[in-house]
Amino acid sequence: MVSVLTFRTQAEAIEKANNSRYGLAAGIWTDKGAKAFEVAGALQAGVVWQNTYNHFDPTAAFGGYKESGFGREGGPAGLRPYLRVVR
């Protein structure tokens, strides 16, 4: 499912995006890298893509936010719950 909404300001876009019980993933389309990082930091989503969507790095952790997902999977963050470090 995808949701497309209009907005007038960056703050309004962030507010609309975060106004959900879910937060699995988000995509930002912009030609300004600094703006993408600013918005990504404010979004309540497990994964945020810039100028693409659904492209995964298999070494990166993946998981949702709020009522999306079941913790983290993939990468070191996904393995950590299954490990016991012995010194």
Question: Strands, helices and their partners?
Answer:
Elements: H1 10-18, E1 25-28, H2 33-42, E2 47-50, E3 62-63, E4 72-73, H3 75-79
Please describe what this structure looks like:
The protein has one domain: Aldehyde Dehydrogenase, Chain A, domain 2 (3-Layer(aba) Sandwich), CATH 3.40.309.10. A two-stranded parallel sheet has the order 1-2. A two-stranded antiparallel ribbon has the order 3-4. It is 28% helix and 14% strand. By secondary structure, the protein is an alpha+beta fold.
Mean pLDDT: 85
Q: Any idea what the CATH superfamily is called?
A: Aldehyde Dehydrogenase, Chain A, domain 2
Question: Strands of the largest sheet, in order across it?
Answer: 1-2
- Strand share of the residues? 5-15%
| Tally of individual helices | 3
Outline type: elongated
Task: Show unreliable segments.
Answer: none
Text of the CATH class: Alpha Beta
Which structural class do you get from the secondary structure elements?
alpha+beta
End-to-end span in angstroms?
A: 46 Å
Provide the CATH topology: Aldehyde Dehydrogenase, Chain A, domain 2
Q: What is the helical fraction, as a range of percent?
A: 25-40%
CATH architecture title: 3-Layer(aba) Sandwich
User: How many separate structural domains?
Assistant: 1
